[in-house]
Design brief:
The structure is a homodimer of 256-residue chains. With 256 residues, chain A is mainly α. Helix content of chain A is 73%, strand content 0%. The first copy, chain A, is elongated. The interface between A and B is large, with 46 and 46 residues.
Chain lengths: 256, 256
């Protein structure tokens, strides 16, 4: 009996979707962590260089790694790290002569903080690559229609490929909008129109009304694709994509 | 006028305590971040090696970095990473033959996660060193009485050396217990006995009643030391320490 239940556990854990879910939730947690590290770096380093505030994390970290004091500042380095914003920052740094000096040990700590920010980005790239490959295997049809990371998030919300395949389109459309849905059901007001699918880049160019319709169109095809991935294992996504593209075109042509 | 206010800003920012406060709050945030990374690593890796659960973060990360599959496990490596617990883990790993295989790409991501955990510990060590040196300069008397990190936390709560020096002992005793104090004032119940000072290792061996008295004794001497650090700049902490040690001995001899 023990051996049997062991075998069951093995099967449950070795299903390919379990590690994917670990990877996508790690990716999301690292997003949070990057935010914390960025905030600490920004607040601390801006004692010495308030000119950098507002820069994105990557450019900011690159500059911290290369700029100990205003003597070591070059326009070239700033432009390489921050593009056009770098030119502006260079002018402002050069124009401000009142600046406290940063200590040796303190700069070392700040550099390590900036290095951490960069390493976290690299970790996310590795996770991204792994998610792309593994979710492509687990959900070949679904990932033909939408980005691997969005597919992985749907999988995370569902819990398994099999469970995702049992969901009707309306559920898939609202996966990730559980809180908003609960609020709607309890307190009234507008129902949510999308959850995870809000991240589809195609929704970016659409009006508010079009977005809801787009999310529904995607959800409809995703639910069919997920069933193929879970049960028939046949590749049908090319046809689904064709139909989906047509529906999208119709929605985007409509005035509102 | 602009030049004048610029000068003022320069003075405000170049006071030595501002970077210390940045360093200690970074240290505390990195604690949080390490917890998040550890949790992700543990949850993911335990699909393959549930035997590691409960290990501390450092040992856990070391093992993840060295153990791709159960074939690469050696007793020596586990003992080096986790001490006596490693021996137990080795037995359990060898005894369990049902184990899913970890993929190449997936292990790469897990290794990077473990590497991140280790790098964060190193960042904390650098911060720790910097805090030790800088708070020793800003608060030589206070750090003669208590650990630099606890002194830095008091400084963070106060906002500046000057402000810390204005606090009576009763305030210093409760710095960091603001929430508990508020709860007490609003809803009644027991008042808090200590805030940041709870972290004093000396409180570890004391009874509940002794702890409150110890915190008060420390707070009394810290408030005198802080005033010397802010105003007279004279070193008086050796005498304070002598008196403090006597008071501590009396408290610890009392039965409760």
């Amino acid at each position: 009996m023990l051996a049997e239940s062991r075998e069951e556990v093995k099967i449950a854990y070795s299903t390919a979707d379990h590690p994917i879910m670990q990877a996508i939730s790690t990716y999301k947690e690292i997003d949070k962590v990057k935010g914390i590290v960025y905030e600490r770096m920004d607040e601390w380093y801006s004692i010495y260089f308030p000119e950098l505030q507002g820069l994105n994390a990557e450019a900011y970290a690159e500059i911290v790694l290369n700029m100990k004091d205003s003597e070591s500042v070059t326009q070239e380095m700033l432009e390489k790290a921050a593009g056009a914003a770098g030119t502006e920052i260079f002018k402002r740094i050069i124009g401000n002569s009142t600046r406290p000096k940063i200590g040796e040990e303190e700069y070392k700590a700040l550099r390590e903080l900036a290095k951490t920010e960069k390493d976290l980005t690299e970790l996310q790239n590795t996770l991204d690559k792994y998610i792309g490959e593994s979710v492509g295997k687990a959900l070949p049809n679904v990932t033909y229609l939408i980005e691997p990371k969005i597919a992985a998030e749907l999988l995370l919300k569902a819990g398994s490929v099999e469970r995702l395949a049992t969901f009707p389109a309306s559920t898939i459309q609202l996966l990730g909008a559980e809180k908003a849905l609960f609020k709607h059901l309890k307190f009234g007001g507008r129902p949510p129109k999308y959850g995870v699918l809000f991240k589809l880049p195609q929704l970016g160019n659409a009006s508010k009304k079009q977005r809801g319709r787009l999310a529904r169109a995607y959800a409809t095809k995703i639910s069919i694709a997920a069933r193929a991935d879970a049960y028939s294992k046949r590749f049908i996504a090319d046809k689904l994509k064709e139909q989906l593209d047509k529906t999208i075109a119709v929605i985007m042509e409509s005035k509102d």
